[in-house]
Design a protein that fits this description.
By secondary structure, this protein is mainly α. It is built from four helices and no strands.
């Protein structure tokens, strides 16, 4: 199952925040090799739509992934 398919399965009643669940899902995709070094994540608005969350939640998730050193961002390059 693709990490994108798992995004719609976020547990709204979980003790983990939606942001953390997004981070965990994307981290698992990176660690499993599903997302490689040249892989591109969807834009934040698309991620928010796929996951059924607010755009700012997606922004926070990507920011956390950058802080962890798991992703880099280049505006306009996908």
């Amino acid at each position: 199952m693709s990490y994108k398919d798992q995004l719609s399965d976020l547990a709204r009643d979980s003790e983990r925040s939606l942001t953390q669940q997004l981070v965990d899902t994307i981290t698992a995709a990176i660690e499993s090799g599903e997302l490689g070094p040249e892989g591109k994540l969807p834009p934040t608005r698309e991620l928010a739509e796929l996951a059924g969350v607010n755009h700012l939640t997606a922004v926070r998730a990507y920011r956390r992934l950058r802080e962890l050193g798991l992703v880099t961002a280049h505006v306009g390059r996908g």
